[in-house]
Design a protein that fits this description.
This protein is of the alpha/beta class and 493 residues long. It has 23 helices and 12 strands. The chain is elongated, with a radius of gyration of 28 Å. The model is unreliable at 1-5 and 456-460 (pLDDT under 50). GO terms for molecular function: 4 iron, 4 sulfur cluster binding; metal ion binding.
Length: 493
């Protein structure tokens, strides 16, 4: 059982406490050590990814196949979900449906209480971060221990993850040593007194710290990289083996999985197991790839639960342009190539999904009511590098432009602006030739009024600072229609 203390687990800061991206980047750009760490880490991963992708002769065909498979899942998601539920239920899994994070958290907490446990071990999971599961369990008196090494660093450091694949990418090994030295003993087995910043020593300290938690925990929580619809098989890929420990030792396993993570058949998985490791860690295959199909007596957890999480995904699916974001397999290749992410890090995005994928997925999952979400589609140079590396061909730049348009529409609907009024008027003018002709009469009159002169800067309320440094030529004294009539229809040829 977990030791008694004021807080069961280290308390992280809140995403809600981070200002919108345009403000957050000012502080992020001042962190020279963080920029150095990010530049080194992302550069290393990029180089490995290029080398591994170049080994595959049909790399581009695999990307196309992956995109088509995910799109097919989206088109028939209702059918695949029903099929997957039946297959999992037939295999002995209890399937739950969660409309949002609050409902999913309640289900996990209720299962833990029913089992009489006050702590769980966790496999790294973006879905559980998305719904703030750790904080919800803490409020119910249940400790949630992260077992992924990078997630452990973040948790013990009272920090927030800054990368999808490498949550502690913003930390160097000296910082990790200090976190282990000062925090490990508060929440379990302490680090050795003389631990150095040598990676092998730090890893050994983490292994010792986690071993007790693995051996005593009766319940584990995971996400899921994929669910095979026709067999009900869950798939998790990982690099350290901590996931394998969580999938074999505890008596109860609860998996929180987004409804978009389905694949039709096991044959479809082959495509993704070639793309995912090469795109994420620059490896030919994942060190640990775990499959489990229901309950097997005497082998692994005997009480399996799967929570199928919506939490805004059906809203994303309803957008013909934005729905391509649901192809994402959380490889983080878009983060590693992004020049913006490399300079500001993940925290500036104010979301567990940083980088290009965060800029297009977060605002769609949560909506545009908050300023932080309205700012994210602008957190990009639109250079298109993310389009080129994405293993499932997500058209990031198209979606970013689409979301910028939606943000502009949202702002105009809430607070009408002069610019919006001008654009609405221009739309009326250009919608009909008669409208244009009537406006041209006014333009001609203005041209005669300012004949031979220049119009200086426009009044600030009308044009703002743009025209304060620019001159605009006077309107013409003759419209194009008049010129055409005189020179082409009956006048000079």
């Amino acid at each position: 059982m977990s030791p008694t203390r004021e807080r069961l687990t280290p308390e992280p800061p809140s995403w809600l406490g981070i200002p919108p991206f345009p403000e957050a980047v000012k502080e992020a750009l001042g962190k020279a050590e963080q920029r150095k760490n990010l530049r080194h880490a992302t550069g290393t991963i990029r180089a490995k990814r290029v080398a591994r992708a170049d080994e595959v002769d049909n790399w581009e065909e695999l990307r196309t196949a992956a995109a088509q498979i995910k799109d097919r899942v989206g088109r028939h998601l209702d059918d695949y979900l029903v099929q997957a539920e039946k297959a999992m239920t037939d295999a002995g899994v209890t399937v739950h449906w969660a409309r949002d994070g609050k409902e999913a958290n309640r289900i996990v907490a209720d299962i833990a209480k029913a089992k009489g446990v006050d702590e769980v071990v966790k496999i790294k999971s973006m879905a559980t971060q998305e719904i703030d599961l750790n904080e919800a369990l803490e409020a119910e008196g249940i400790a949630a221990w992260e077992t992924d090494l990078a997630e452990l660093i973040v948790q013990l450091g009272h920090d927030l993850p800054s990368h999808i694949l490498v949550p502690a990418i913003h930390r160097n090994r000296s910082e990790v040593r200090e976190i282990f030295r000062t925090e490990m003993g508060t929440y379990g087995t302490p680090a050795p007194a003389g631990v150095s910043d040598n990676p092998e020593e730090l890893t050994a300290a983490a292994r010792t710290h986690l071993r007790d938690k693995f051996l005593r925990s009766k319940m584990a929580v995971s996400g899921g990289n994929f669910i095979i619809a026709d067999t009900g098989t869950l798939v998790i890929v990982e690099s350290e083996g901590n996931g394998r420990m969580c999938l074999t030792l505890p008596e109860t396993l609860v998996s929180v999985v987004g409804i978009e993570k389905l694949l039709p058949t096991i044959e479809d998985l082959e495509v993704f197991l070639k793309l995912l490791p090469r795109s994420s860690t620059g490896e030919r295959m994942n060190p640990y790839t775990s499959f489990w199909t229901g309950v097997t007596p005497g082998d692994g957890p005997q009480d399996l639960h799967v929570i199928l999480l919506d939490n805004g995904r059906t809203n994303v699916l309803s957008d013909p342009v934005g729905r391509a974001a649901l192809r994402c397999i959380r490889c983080s290749a878009c983060l590693n190539i992004c020049p913006v992410y490399e300079r500001v890090g993940g925290h500036a995005y104010g979301s567990m999904y940083p980088g290009p994928i965060g800029a297009i997925l977060g605002p769609q999952l949560r909506g545009l009511e908050e300023e932080r979400d309205r700012a994210l589609p602008y957190a990009s140079t639109l250079c298109g590098a993310c389009n080129d590396v994405c293993p499932v061909r997500i058209p990031f730049t198209d979606i970013l432009v689409h979301l910028r348009h939606k943000v502009a529409e949202y702002k105009s609907s809430k607070h009408p602006t002069v610019e919006g009024g001008i654009m609405k008027g221009a739309g009326w003018v250009m919608s009909d030739g008669k409208h244009l002709a009537s406006v041209q009469v006014a333009s001609r009159a203005a041209g005669k009024l300012y004949r031979g002169k220049w119009i200086g800067p426009m009044p600030v309320p009308l044009a703002g600072r743009w025209l304060q440094a620019r001159d605009v030529e006077a309107p013409p004294t003759e419209t194009f229609r008049e010129w055409w009539k005189k020179n082409r229809e009956g006048g000079q040829k």
